[in-house]
Amino acid sequence: PTRLRSPTYNLAATSNAFVSYARWFTNVPADTDRLSVQISRNGGATWTTYENIADSVGWNVSRFKVSDLAVLSSSMRFRFAVSDPGNNSRTRICSGWRSSFRSRRLSTAFS
Q1: Minimal CB count within 10 Å: which of 17, 24, 38, 102?
Q2: How far apart are CA 104 and CA 70, in angstroms?
């Protein structure tokens, strides 16, 4: 897979950390190729998948509260991975883009 990793974020003392990003992924014709969005709380030693996208139309914005997915730590990282099982890109188009990645700490919670 092709992977794009974030730097390490210290979110240990934060209760309202949110991540948002815009993504675009196309997989023509649709097969097992995927764009995975993942989170790590231990600097990248292990990863938990937040999204696993098979195909999408145009740009999509995704936003999530980090503590809903993992216990916050001083070693938080985020990763975008595009996979092409079978390595058959010569006959298929598998493209993914990530833009506008943001990590924010908010002083008040959203309901």
Answers
A1: 102
A2: 16
